[in-house]
Design brief:
Layout (H helix, E strand, L loop, with lengths): L10 H10 L4 E3 L2 E4 L2 E4 L4 H12 L4 E3 H9 L9 H24 L8 E7 L4 E7 L9
Antiparallel strand pairs: 1-2, 2-3, 4-6, 5-6
Length: about 140
Amino acid sequence: MKNAILLTHNILDQEEFKASIPKVQMNGTRLIFEGMTIDLGKQALMIKLFQAFIENDDCRVSRLNLIQKIYGHTDLSGTNPQLLCDFHNIVKLISRARKICETGLYDGINRHWMWFDYDPFTSEWVLVKPRYVRMTVAG
C-alpha cells in the first residue's frame, strides 16, 4: 500500500497567487484584460456569461449557477425538461467565449492564460488562470 503524503498550503501564498492574476473587467459591452479589449457588441448571452464570472470574487462558477444567471431559471430540479437543453447550451456558450478570449485577448507573443478551464473536482469553471508549461526529463 502506498504512503499518502499530506501537502499543506500556505494561505498567504494562495492569496498572493490570486492577486497576481490580472483582473477581467466589463465596461458596458467591452471586455478588458491586460490592456486588451474585445467589444462583445449585441451578444447579450456572452455579456451575461462574463458578468456571472466577474461577479464572483474567485471567478469560479458552477453550471447550475450559470443557468440561473444567464437563462433566469428558478426551477433547477431534475423534472425541468429545459434544464438538460440549457446544460448543453452553457457548454457551447463557454466554448465560444473561450475562442473569443484566446483570439481576441492574445498579444501575439505568449499564451500565458487558460480561459474557462473546467475543474471536475468542484464541477466549476474558472474564468482565467495561468497556463503552465509541462516540463519533461530527457533520458
